[in-house]
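As the next step, I selected for study one protein, both as residues and as discrete backbone shape codes, as given directly below:
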Amino acid sequence: MYQLTRVCKPSRARLVHLGIGIRPPLPRPLPSRLLSTNALEPPKPSSSRPQIPTEPLPRSRLLSRILLVAKYTGLAALSSTFGILLLGAGIFIHDAFTYTNKDVHRVPVLPLALHPEQGGPKNLPIVRALVDDVEDDEAKKLLDKPKLVIVGGGWGAISVLQTLSPGDWHVTVVSPETFTTFTPLLPSAAVGTVQVRTLVEPLRKIVARLRGHFVDAKAVDLVMSERLLELETLTSTGTPQNVYLPYDKLIIACGSTSSTHGIQGLKHCFQLKTISDAQAIRRRILDNFETASLPITTPEERKRLLSFVVCGGGPTGVETAAEIYDFCQEDIVNYYPKICREEVSIHVIQSREHILNTYSEAISKYAEEKFRRDSVDLVTSARVSAVHPDHVVYTVRAPDGTITTHEIPTNFVLWSTGIAMNPFTRRVSALLPNQVHKKAIEVDAHLRVKGAPLGDVYAIGDCATIETSVVSHLLELVDEADKNKDGKIDFDEFDFMVARIKHRIPMAESQLQKVRTLFDLYDSDADNSLSLNELCKLLEEIGNKITSLPATAQVASQQGKYLGKKLNQLAKKREVLEANDIHDLDEAVSKTFRYTHLGSLAYIGNAAVFDLGNLSFMGGLAAMYAWRSIYWSEQVSARTRFLLMIDWIIRGVWGRDLSRL
């Protein structure tokens, strides 16, 4: 037997070891720069193992992202720092250029401005020229323009001023206040959430764009036959002095006052319509808390001092109650004795079944639930009967009709229920026999005061209401529509009449959708025609169903913009219209006013509600920031926008100011 053995091919390394058949490789020549005596020596055997080159470990994805974020964060920080420094430098440079001297020597003044002539029914000075009418060339150009006088400085007046084109009118604004106020944020100013300076803008700065004039006075009477507005001013000694101010067109936009409803003791209440009202409320609230913190104050007196009563469940009352609650939760609890926060009670008395009753039902219920969670006492279906210095008396009607009387001890009462005429609008209404509205001046669809000379006097805002009575135009409508003069209105004539009604009173459109149905409904004798009695009844019921526009800033703003655009058109087409002997200038240059409801909103304490017609939106902080954004965008100027933003930041970082000024 032979044993087979496996013969393996010797490796190259083995043959070299045995010295068989392998020529050693020739040494590679070295460059001359590397030749040295040491280089010719044979290499010494190394005892260490040869090093194997290794690849660098790959960087982790997380570390790469962190470095990338750090890189761009650093760049952003550097660029922001540079931007802030550049902005600061720009502000300082601009400030340096504001310190300039202007030559005001030899300013020309008209003699009539220094020595007004006497005249008018009361033989008063007639201010036909103002002291700044000819002070420069631009002012001289406006001297011969038609005189536009605006009474008031609220939302309506400001919208007119912002819409008018410069150079078309000689504009004069008359107001007892030298500033306009952003009224929707007055509840915030009443507790120090924002400062009162943030809510005001000087009227002189607003009217300066039109090279207009401002008169610090109060309108008291009107002479329409001579186009004279009577003003009450104060002399340097503080005594009243009445003067006449001539006008070609007059816009009444002086707002309203709160309705008293015949309640006794309203002198003990606060209102919230002006900056002075907000300052007085803030002082009273702080005084109450300071007195309640004293050790000599009895428990009963402390509860009375810390009881806050709001009469009225509309937007103003609800927002004021919400602001007082936020003030107690966020500031009083931190800086006053804790017992003061514990003893606070907030009461809202509403005559209707729900608060915010002009909003959607879902919003009313949401606001009521929010107040219940915040322990705000809601008293609905109640009426205040009397206000005393130390308590409020109100009555509640139960579902079965029984009436019970209740009292709330308090040292703070806010009255915000409805509107009423101020003295000037009441005087204007008394001068015109066809003015029958009890709360405002009645105007037509062109915003012209009814009964005044056509196109001379307009009224907008809270002091005005657009007519809703259709039956008062019965004879005019019949005269236009009765083509065959038979004393009856057939369907074709009624269809024409409906078109005329929609043109005269646009708010009646919603009641005149189904023309044929209306015609058949009131054609009681089925003779396919409407007699005057049948027509009178139809128009009367249509007028009763029309809802007047609410007295809100949104309505006043839209009316002001509409009137400003109309006046721009009148100025451009005045010569053509006068040459063609057109009497109704408003009808010739503009359509009637149509209100577009953009929605209503209200703040209810770190939350807000929005009523957008068919859509309602309500919520917490997100809705509150949306509410803030809308009010921020509606500010009059960039200055007030900046101040408002700063106030909100200060409240969030350092809280409200607790100083009593």
Notes: The longest helix spans residues 61-98. The longest strand covers residues 228-234. The radius of gyration is 40 Å. Residues 1-9, 15-22, 32-40 have pLDDT under 50 and may be disordered.
